[in-house]
Amino acid sequence: MEDGHGYGDGEATLGDRLTAAREGAGLEVGELAARLGVRTETLEGWESDQAEPRASLLGRLSGILGVSLIWLMTGDGRGPSTGESGPGAIAAELRDLRRLLNEAARRMDRIEDLLACD
After folding, report:
1. What is the per-residue pLDDT across 5-44, written as a single tens digit (0 to 9) for each?
2. Does residue 21 form part of some domain?
3. What is the tens place of the pLDDT at every residue in 96-105?
């Protein structure tokens, strides 16, 4: 599913989305790195997909960059330049999360069924 930013169905990597969100927020690599307390080289490594940020930093990244955590990780949900904020955006993100949880539950059910057949 494409989200309107051209980053759906695995077309973009975490590094691609991170770069797009940083640029959308009008931040230079060094500025974002300083706000996160990491080296510029570390952030450049994330953006080039040579490494990934720790889980504890993903939430901070999404907050600083104004994108949903789900979008940053998967490409689904609220990405950069949507201009959405407030209750409507929160409700939309909640719907996205529910959809992802339902999908995960269906996948878990299929796996459990496969395991029960063995």
Report:
1. 444 445 789 999 999 999 888 889 999 999 999 999 999 9
2. yes
3. 778 888 888 9
In a domain, 34, yes or no: yes
Domain range for 84 is 14-117
Alpha-carbon gap, residue 3 to 7, rounded angstroms: 6
Distance in angstroms (rounded) separating the CA atoms of residues 112 and 88: 36
Task: Work out the angle at residue 102's Cα, subtended by the Cα atoms of residues 97 and 107, and round it to the nearest 5 degrees.
Answer: 125
The domain that contains 98 carries what CATH number? Answer: 1.10.260.40
Rounded CA-CA distance 63/38 in Å is 16
Q: How far apart are CA 35 and CA 75, in angstroms?
A: 23
Please count the structural domains in the chain.
Answer: 1
What residue type is assigned to position 48 of the chain? Answer: S
pTM beyond cutoff 0.70? no
DSSP states along 27-90: --HHHHHHHHT--HHHHHHHHTTSS---HHHHHHHHHHHT--HHHHHHS-S--TT----SHHHH
Over residues 61-88, the mean pLDDT reads 77
